[in-house]
Amino acid sequence: MTGKIRHYFAGGNTAKGFHHFFDSNLASLTRLWILKGGPGTGKSTLMKQIGHAWLEKGYDVEWIHCSADPDSLDGLIIPALEIGLVDGTAPHILEPTAPGAKEEYVNLGQAWERKKLELHLEEVEQYNKKIDECYKEAYSIFAMALSIHDEWEDIYIENLNREAADQLAQTYITRLFGNVSLNKKAEVKHRYLGAATSKGAVDYIPNLTYELPKRYFIKGRPGTGKSTLLKKVAKKAEKLGLDVEIYHCGFDPESLDMVIVRELGFAIFDSTAPHEYYPEREGDEIVDTYDKMIRKGTDEDNVLKIQDIRKRYSEKMNEGTACLKKAKYLHDELESIYIQAMNFEKVEKIQQSIQDQICEIAQID
């Protein structure tokens, strides 16, 4: 029986720069391989091949996707074996907690043919400089977009019925948790619902929620309390000893977009653009924050202002995405230089060594 893949992001290109939650997702592992090496050294391919090998053995795996390029992996976790592999190069540099005992560095750079790389030294330096400039520009533009988004939120915050917001939150907390209370410490994992990538906004909501019998789709405008509601749900779950997956906004990491409590079989998430979904099966339910909390006529009274804000916000998001797309193009060019200088037979030996160690952990011949 083939295992299942769970897809998510742990790092994000946000309005506040690159921000990651790798530590949260790797904390429970007893063995971690931290992969080092430049672009094109085969880190993502190595993780995918090891992941597929264990999927075929019937193990569930987690794929941590790269926010710069969602087709690439930043990490692989096999929960049942409590092991993982992760890309430990910038910008997600990880400090080991127990070097040798838990974490092990794997240097794929040992498979470089250095003389070939030395021929492209200036070119490599220029590519790295340009890529860094692209990301800095993207973060600056996303910060401007966040400021515009705050204008959008202010319209609805000024027309928010806070008492109704508190009442709605309490109603759903009662429905979601009832009298449940577990005598254990909650395991809390922080992730991203989606990410701003070179391909635009990407999320894995269907994959993350398809097994859950109850899904709550929060609908509403910016500033209608969606994130506040989710923070209250997450806090309650943790207080009750329930394991909780907290998914942050890929644009603003201080805001929440989804909470999953698998022990109770539910997900509740912000289902507005750019991650807009609608109920499609039994157990799906809409939570309308606009209708219950915002003064009637708010949209109509601010229609021109909202149109202007939406236009400016969209323009900035497109500009930021264009910077990420340019960074991806430059990264691909840089990768091609490293690929030509790689001895992939050495990489395959490194991969086989890791695979053998995992088999030993799993007690499989």
TrEMBL record:
Domain of life per record: Bacteria
Gene3D superfamilies: P-loop containing nucleotide triphosphate hydrolases (3.40.50.300)
Full protein name: ATPase
Source organism of the structure: Jeotgalibacillus campisalis
InterPro entries linked: P-loop_NTPase (IPR027417)
SUPFAM superfamilies: P-loop containing nucleoside triphosphate hydrolases
